[in-house]
Amino acid sequence: MPCYRLDGLTPVIHPSAYVHPSAVLIGDVIIGANCYVGPLAALRGDLGRIVMEEGANLQDTCVMHGFPGGDTVIERNGHIGHGAVIHGCRIGEDALVGMNAVVMDGAHIAPRSIVAATAFVKAGFQCPEQSLVVGAPAVVKRPLSDEELAWKRRGTAEYHRLTQRCMAGLVECAPLSAAEPQRPRMGDSGVRPKAEGGA
Q1: Which of 103, 105, 141, 168 is deepest in the core (most CB within 10 A)?
Q2: Which terms does the record give in the GO molecular function aspect (predicted)?
Q3: Whole-Å CA distances, 178 to 45, 121, 173, 182
């Protein structure tokens, strides 16, 4: 993967984390245990520190960056959807940021909260735990239900399993010229290995 030391600081990736080969890591980046970093994600620790805590996922084309001297953090089991931008902020434990959302500097998304897809979270924003955050600019719409939180946790567990699947069996290959007869689907027996000790 493109991984770059800058000013003597080398990115750190826990051995149990999966980082896609096309993701880019620069400088002061720390990726914890069982994390997933998707294709084309950019983690730029060239000004501030970038931290992904245990079990967090950062999906394809996401960006993490921050201002000098600050930390940009995704706490334990944080879940960042496709194309989101996380800049100089803190995403709380077990929180979710939806696809193409933007969370700005000094914002704190509280634990067990969900930021809706395409939301724009202004600098310095705060919310109570287990909140639904929507809009541009984003506001707290209401508390999250336990059912909505359970839905989020199922999605994050799927990324925990994907981390293990990619570690065990993602292999670069040449494409086929045509689909096989009776081509199986992901999830069919023998296609998708069951994660051990699943979350």
Answers
A1: 103
A2: hydrolase activity
A3: 42, 45, 15, 12
